[in-house]
Amino acid sequence: MQRTAAPEGRGPVRYGPHAPAQGLPVLPELAAVLAAAAGRAETEPPGGSPELREAACGYWRRRGLRSRPDHVAAACGAQPLLSALIGAHGGDVLMPRPCPAPWTPQARLLGWPAFHVPTPAECGGVPDPYALLETVRRVRAEGGDPRLLLLSVVDDPTATVAPPETVREACEAAVGEGLHIISDETWRDTLHRPHDTMLLSPAEMAPDDVTVLTDLAGALTPAAWPVAVARFPDTEQGEARRARTLDILAALGAVVATPVAYAAAHALGEPGPVVERMRRAAAVHARVAAAAHHEVLISGALARPPQAGRHLYADLGPLRARLAERDVSDSMELEEYLTGRLGVPVPGGHRFGDELGALRVRLATAPLLGTTPEQQLETLNSPAPLELPHVAGALRILGSAFGELR
After folding, report:
1. Cα–Cα nearest to 136, from 104, 91, 101
2. Threshold 0.85, pTM exceeds
């Protein structure tokens, strides 16, 4: 079995909830909290202040996960926090294929092999349990030391939500093989149909074997204010891993900026304006994602129906012959072609652990909401966002780019 490494591509394409793509303007209430704390001279301790960690506990309790502040750690963004978590556990890392773009490079940077496991047909983010067991056995047979499984029940890049039964089977397989699970739940508050979608955290199924990671940029805070939190199991091992994680965060200097910590604690408390913004944002991204999904499908390309988040994962394999006429034969070339055609970053599937030869890309819905804060707010507040000229125009460009490949 070969160690997996995503090709670097032909140029930098940044990605994730902290990417510099268009987003919604900062919520005025959060901006006011940040501004009020701007004059504070004290720094946050590694792992976050008691106030920030208590706010995170309240957030998780409202979602059915009992937490205590001494089982929580915060950092200045998901990437340094995940690096600290991987470093604290050690061992080979398993992750689904495709997976969030930073995961493979982070494991590789720390010197640990990363192995991708196929996902079931109905969703991404969670490995197929039988494929997971087979991968663990092969890695061990080749002298590897698999210890950690990364997964995301609400997935970036595929915008799908894993069914509870799939999550349960994957967790049982992982725990049975002695793997610890890191559950990235960054996008859990972005469900497109929250009343019709059942979401179950792995921490509800295997509380002693799951660490939960949440990047607040997924739904709660602006991407420019990096902050993420982790919830550790209430066990001796959990306490030891949290202590090692804090040591690594301290060594990296990966602390949350004090004004950002105040704003993050406020957002984690979920006051009315924050909850309303989350609801409206999820609803408008759902409308736009569904329209984009329609444009992709009528071109002959494939994509799972988006269920959450701000992305759409498209497979242009059925259009391979037409793409070959445009000198596009792999995902790096497809990334370059569609980025040029659409005028916004369209990262190829190779950045998410997919095979280079697979013609897959992740399409973001945020650029479809408008190019100015005024347009974005108009889209957010409109009862018919798809009828707005700037949204309709962006969808026409997307439809044209895919339609010419039919």
Report:
1. 91
2. yes
Q: 288: which residues sit within 8 A by CB, 6+ positions away? A: 365, 368, 369, 379, 385, 386, 391, 395
The sign one gets for the Cα dihedral 155, 158, 161, 165 is negative
- Assigned token pair, 266: 């406020």
Q: Identify the CA nearest to 147 among candidates 189, 175, 179, 109.
A: 179
HSE (side-chain half, CA atoms, 13 Å) at 194: 13
Determine the straight-line distance between the first and last CA of the chain, rounded to whole angstroms: 37
Alpha carbons 396 and 79: distance in angstroms, whole number = 35
List the one residue out of 13, 18, 14, 73 whose CA is nearest residue 226: 18
Please answer whether residues 386 and 288 qualify as being in contact, where contact means their C-beta atoms are separated by less than 8 angstroms.
yes
The string of pLDDT tens digits covering residues 357-396 is 999 999 999 999 999 999 999 999 999 999 999 999 999 9
The H or E element that residue 97 is part of is strand 92-97
How many residues are present in the chain? 406
